[in-house]
Description:
127 residues, mainly alpha, globular
Amino acid sequence: MIDGTIARKMNTVTEFGTRFDTAADFVFVVVCLIKLLPVISMPAWLCIWIVIIALIKIINIISGHIVQRKLVAVHSVMNKVTGVLLFILPLTFPIVPLKYLAIPVCAVATFAAVQEGHFIRTDPDIK
């Protein structure tokens, strides 16, 4: 989770590293979903909310490709906060029921996804 920060501090950021980090984040989320979904009980509203977030992210990828003619990866603060919350989420299952934990995590993820779309469409410096 801190590799990008270290790369920026040491001035070793590369295009490959940026793309690889995005791909690794995607793989991490998919693997976690594959492992966690069979063992947790999720209400229907939560499944719908997760699908909506995923659709927004897919639209962002497509529009980023249309607008900038390349795969655009937005490493915003809110995307990073979402990543931290998703990383911590499974660790909190024994303490707080998922239906309560999911609301703030999904709210932050929704905001991050919408913000990402805004950045892609309005900021020509997004890579």
